[in-house]
Amino acid sequence: MKYCSECAAAVSLKVPDGDDRPRYVCDHCEIIHYQNPRVVVGCLPTVGDKVLLCRRAIEPRLGFWTIPAGFMENGETMLAGALRETREEADAKVKNESLYRLFDIPHINQVYVFFRGELDGDFGIGPESLESRLFSEDEIPWSELAFPVVTDILVDYFDDRRRNDYPIRLGKPGPLWAEHVNWNFDHS
Ligand code: ZN
Fold first, then answer.
1. CA of 141 to the centre of ligand 1 (A)
2. 93 and 158 assigned to the same domain
3. Pair 75, 159 in one domain
4. pLDDT in tens, 31-59
5. What is the domain-level CATH number for residue 25?
6. Rounded distance, CA 108 to CA 118, Å?
7. Using the 8-state DSSP alphabet, how is residue 183 labeled?
8. Using one digit for the tens of pLDDT, what is the confidence trace for 171-181?
9. Inter-CA distances, 78 with 71, 114, 115, Å
10. Mean pLDDT for the chain?
11. Most buried in the list 1, 19, 89, 177, measured by CB within 10 Å?
12. CB within 5 A of ion ligand 1: which residues?
């Protein structure tokens, strides 16, 4: 951040009185611009032994497969955001949705919240996708998944499905992804 969004003067990075970490503080109006993690919400649509994935039409990771997800908007709930992203990316609706996976990704200041739900009716291709497709476990393009969280969620989902037990898990993405893709995920 270089300029104050309130008055357009320059900002400085400094620790405000009574605080314990540096913030951008306006040199002119002295407003403190707090920056906090962003929330990404998504939903894994499932039908029978298959899951619905979308191939990304936008960077980053254009052409790679992902679970419908995106940044939460102001004024919506986590579930509403996940369902909106599912409509936007896969032109799909889900029913019987459940909270499923939570991820802390502190090095890029993001929190991910994923639901799962049964595909309700048809699906299509949203403007941010090149293609949407149902995959069974042995059809998953493991080396062409867009992000570590996608690998984690899919590995766990098919394991959970075998046990018919879908616990809510909190974790950091990564180790499973590294087994499948030789790509250094670094947005910092
Ligand atoms: Zn200002």
1. 49
2. yes
3. yes
4. 999 999 999 999 999 999 999 999 999 99
5. 2.20.70.10
6. 30
7. -
8. 887 655 555 54
9. 10, 9, 9
10. 92
11. 89
12. 4, 6-7, 9, 26, 28-29
Distance CA 53, CA 129 (A): 10
Cα–Cα distance, 179 to 188 (Å, whole number): 22
Could you give the angle at the alpha carbon of 65 between the alpha carbons of 62 and 70, nearest 5°?
75
For tokens 């250094």, what's the residue? 184
* DSSP letters for 147-160: SHHHHHHHHHHHHH
Q: From ligand 1's centre to the CA of 15, what distance in Å?
A: 16
The average pLDDT across 95-108 equals 93
For residue 187, pLDDT beyond 70:
no
Distance of CA 55 from the midpoint of ligand 1 (Å):
42
Could you tell me if 78 and 20 lie in one domain?
Answer: no
List alpha helices for the chain, DSSP H.
Answer: 78-90, 148-163, 175-180
